[in-house]
């Protein structure tokens, strides 16, 4: 149900000057650090056939919750009864201008997706959205709920309908002036705000993102098979990473940015102004061996408040073992792998054995 704020919003509908209120909302959003906002309606029926086909193809992998939610993702008013509009907000996260490519080029270093280098975006964005929704309520009572990748919401579909950008061939949202390095969040509201118009797509014949995907996960323009996506393999997948895909992961231990790094529109990406998104614990340039040495306590302490925390220490080691298997053969790499050869987890041991075999070695003893 929608959260009521300052009384019954329905009684105030007739008093709302939608255009004037929306202008003030944009100003409040900017003051809170959002790059832009847009307003969409709740009729996403046109997106349902594509969603159904994607699920039927099994492209969601082990993310069973996506199948359970089904078409609710395309029905905002079913997810939250009473919703009339969805306000989408954009928050930039890109923390640096050059470090990503340097990390990927150095096989001894770990690559962490740039969005995960700092504080967990769920917390940062949700708090900002809540403040914006409450600021709106102080001016015009409304019922609302806020979401940040925390419910079955077609975020990109909504944002592509409300003018925040267009869906790129990698399925992420793109904006001519901001690229794609930003988070999206939503406010579901019962305020009858004016709708923003969508913008034209500007990918043209470009296939840079498709060509750059290390595992071929972008199986067609606008279609990603999550089962091959490195972000899925290193974050969502709980079991062993398929052997055939392991060499393709390179040194990527948490997520992947390749399709964004090659996108021409990201020449215009904006550096974030959010201190919370600044890299922590040197994760933007850390060595694989050093990260592999983290104990479970180290992992818990150093990823507290980070999106990385949720994969747990076992999968952290699994991912790094694969990257060490892909790294140049050095004494440091071999010693790191041997140090975990008798790890209590069968999952970790399996990936360590594979990694050692890549270097022509077997576990000591």
UniProtKB/TrEMBL annotation:
Positions bound to tRNA: 238
Single GO BP term: tRNA queuosine(34) biosynthetic process
EC code: 1.17.99.6
Pathway: tRNA modification; tRNA-queuosine biosynthesis
Binding of cob(II)alamin, residues: 73, 149, 173, 184, 231, 256-257
Residues reported in the UniProt entry to bind [4Fe-4S] cluster 2: 213, 229, 256, 259
Keyword Cytoplasm: yes
Active site (UniProt): 149 (proton donor)
Domain 4Fe-4S ferredoxin-type: 191-223
Catalytic reaction equation(s): epoxyqueuosine(34) in tRNA + AH2 = queuosine(34) in tRNA + A + H2O
InterPro entries per record: 4Fe4S_Fe-S-bd, 4Fe4S_Fe_S_CS, QueG, QueG_DUF1730
Localization: Cytoplasm
Cofactor(s) this protein requires: [4Fe-4S] cluster; cob(II)alamin
Pfam families noted in UniProt: Fer4_16, QueG_DUF1730
Any Gene Ontology CC annotation: cytoplasm
Keyword tags: 4Fe-4S, Cobalamin, Cobalt, Cytoplasm, Iron, Iron-sulfur, Metal-binding, Oxidoreductase, Queuosine biosynthesis, tRNA processing
GO molecular function annotations of the record: 4 iron, 4 sulfur cluster binding; cobalamin binding; epoxyqueuosine reductase activity; metal ion binding
Thylakoid found in the keyword field: no
Similarity comment: family membership: Belongs to the QueG family.
Quaternary data: Monomer.
Biological role stated in the UniProt entry: Catalyzes the conversion of epoxyqueuosine (oQ) to queuosine (Q), which is a hypermodified base found in the wobble positions of tRNA(Asp), tRNA(Asn), tRNA(His) and tRNA(Tyr).
Name the UniProt record assigns to this protein: Epoxyqueuosine reductase
Organism (species): Thauera linaloolentis (strain DSM 12138 / JCM 21573 / CCUG 41526 / CIP 105981 / IAM 15112 / NBRC 102519 / 47Lol)
Lineage, top ranks: Bacteria, Pseudomonadati, Pseudomonadota, Betaproteobacteria, Rhodocyclales
């Amino acid at each position: 149900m929608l959260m009521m704020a300052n009384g019954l919003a329905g009684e105030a509908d007739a008093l709302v000057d939608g255009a004037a209120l929306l202008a003030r909302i944009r100003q409040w959003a900017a003051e809170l650090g959002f790059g832009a906002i847009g307003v969409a309606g709740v009729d996403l029926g046109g997106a349902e056939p594509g969603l159904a086909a994607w699920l039927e193809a099994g492209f969601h992998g082990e993310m069973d919750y996506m199948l359970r939610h089904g078409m609710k993702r395309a029905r905002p008013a079913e997810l939250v009864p009473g919703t009339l509009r969805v306000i989408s907000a954009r928050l930039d996260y890109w923390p640096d201008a050059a470090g990503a490519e340097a990390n990927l080029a150095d096989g001894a270093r770990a690559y962490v997706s740039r969005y995960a280098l700092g504080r967990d975006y769920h917390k940062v964005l949700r708090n900002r959205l809540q403040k914006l929704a409450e600021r709106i309520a102080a001016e015009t009572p409304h019922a609302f709920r806020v979401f940040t990748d925390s419910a079955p919401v077609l975020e990109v579909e909504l944002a592509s309908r409300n003018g925040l950008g267009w869906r790129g061939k990698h399925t992420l949202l793109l904006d001519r002036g901001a690229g794609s390095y930003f988070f999206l969040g939503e406010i579901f509201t019962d305020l009858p705000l004016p709708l923003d118009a969508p913008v034209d797509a500007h990918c043209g014949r470009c296939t840079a993102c498709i060509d750059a995907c290390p595992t071929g996960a972008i199986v067609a323009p606008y279609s990603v098979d999550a089962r091959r996506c490195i972000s899925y393999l290193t974050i969502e997948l709980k079991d062993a990473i398929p052997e055939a895909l392991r060499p393709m992961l390179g040194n990527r231990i948490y997520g992947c940015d390749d399709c964004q790094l090659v996108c021409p529109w990201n020449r215009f990406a904006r550096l974030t102004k959010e201190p919370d998104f600044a890299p922590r614990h040197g994760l933007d340039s850390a060595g694989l061996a050093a990260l592999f040495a983290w104990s479970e306590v180290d992992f818990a302490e150093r990823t507290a408040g980070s999106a990385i925390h949720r994969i747990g220490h076992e999968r952290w080691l699994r991912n790094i073992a694969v990257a060490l298997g892909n790294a140049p053969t050095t004494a440091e790499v071999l010693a790191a792998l041997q140090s975990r050869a008798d790890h209590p987890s069968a999952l970790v041991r399996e990936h360590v054995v594979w990694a050692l075999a890549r270097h022509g070695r077997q576990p000591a003893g």
